[in-house]
Amino acid sequence: MSTSVLSHRSLSNCTRHGNPRRACRVATHAKLRDLSQWRQEGSGTSEPAVAPELSRRAVLKLGAALPALAAALAAATPPALLLAPLPAAAEGPTLPSPAVAAALDKALAKNIPKTKTAVALRLAFHDAATFSAGAKDGGLNASIQYELDRPENFGLKRGWRIIEQVRADLKGTAAEGVVTDADLVALAGAFAVRLCGGPAIPLPIGRPVAAAARQDPPGRMPSENASAAELKANFAAKGLSVQEMVALSGAHTLGSKGFGDPVTFDNAYYVALLQKPWNNTKDAMASMIGLPSDHVLPDDPDCLPVIQRYAADQDLFFRDFSAAYIKMCGLGVAGWA
């Protein structure tokens, strides 16, 4: 019989035929014929049939014929089939199921009254503010729990206690083991906005959580005394535009910063920015309205047009805030950008 299952004679035939498909058929038929003969010869013995060893000459001929066979196969097979990529893994944000959403709403409503909405929203902002697009680290990952002693996070221990209480109330529900602490930080902020009359923000779940006791790099939170240029640079380093920065700044409408009702989420912040009440020298309390970083925004030529649009159109502010908040809460999560 032939000296191999796929003989060098069969391989050589591939190089003689001009039609690559016919060449492949010739090689295949020779292979099957030789294989059948080998099995027949081995079937008459009690020992398993073993393919004979190739001679040195046969090995050399086989090696010389392989490139021609590869070329013939490539010509006979569409490249798309040879190089077809593996299916991409499913990734990206996923909204909670109705059962999970119901459990979340119940737990969040129990633990976030209107008096705690400002701190819940601030917690989300400060957790996300550690993101750096250049370094590709930080972001909303619940590392805030290890960073509560930083000066910029003063007062946020109350906010983290909300997360712990919500997590405890989710035990035994559809949300247990499905929603991470990082998700809860983002969801608590969104719930606070909705509770105070703001937009309902459809947040996905599945954010990774920082390793135990691992802090994100410090120094990435914008200063309360930052200039407009510094604020724009800080947000740009996180991948956020000027428009998104101004929209997210509207979160200051909640709390005790003096922009309207402290437990109503509306566009009063932008109306106040245009009025600049902190310049009223006749009112001793006026200077306490807002932060220095708020005061600089209406004097910036990039920020002013956005402020004017939001002051005139609350629905537009709600839409843009929702989009910017969703983006902010996905900073640092692979595949969510």
UniProtKB/TrEMBL annotation:
Residues 117-337 form the Plant heme peroxidase family profile domain. CDD domains: plant_peroxidase_like. Its cofactor is heme b. InterPro entries: Ccp1-like, Haem_peroxidase, Haem_peroxidase_sf, Peroxidase_I, Peroxidases_AS, Peroxidases_heam-ligand_BS, TAT_signal. Keywords: Heme, Iron, Metal-binding, Oxidoreductase, Peroxidase. One of its GO terms (molecular function) is peroxidase activity. One of its GO terms (biological process) is hydrogen peroxide catabolic process. It comes from the Eukaryota. PROSITE patterns: PEROXIDASE_1, PEROXIDASE_2, PEROXIDASE_4, TAT. Its EC number is 1.11.1.11. Residues 1-20 are annotated as: Disordered. It holds the Pfam family peroxidase. Residues 1-16 have a biased composition (Polar residues). Gene3D superfamilies: 1.10.520.10, Peroxidase, domain 2. Belongs to the peroxidase family. Ascorbate peroxidase subfamily. This is L-ascorbate peroxidase.
